[in-house]
Amino acid sequence: MARIRAHDYDDRRRRILEIAAALIAEHGFDGASMSMIAARASLSKPGLYHYYDSKEALLFDILHSHLTALRATIAAVPGDLAPEARLRALIQALLAAYRDADDRHKAQINDLPRLPREQQQAIKAIERDIIAPFREVIAALNPRLEPHQLTPVTMSLFGILNWQYTWFQASGRMSLEDYGELVARLFLDGLKSLP
Amino acid sequence: MARIRAHDYDDRRRRILEIAAALIAEHGFDGASMSMIAARASLSKPGLYHYYDSKEALLFDILHSHLTALRATIAAVPGDLAPEARLRALIQALLAAYRDADDRHKAQINDLPRLPREQQQAIKAIERDIIAPFREVIAALNPRLEPHQLTPVTMSLFGILNWQYTWFQASGRMSLEDYGELVARLFLDGLKSLP
DNA sequence: CCTACCGATCGGTAGG
DNA sequence: CCTACCGATCGGTAGG
Question: Which residues of A touch B113 (CB under 8 A)?
Answer without folding.
Answer: 26, 28
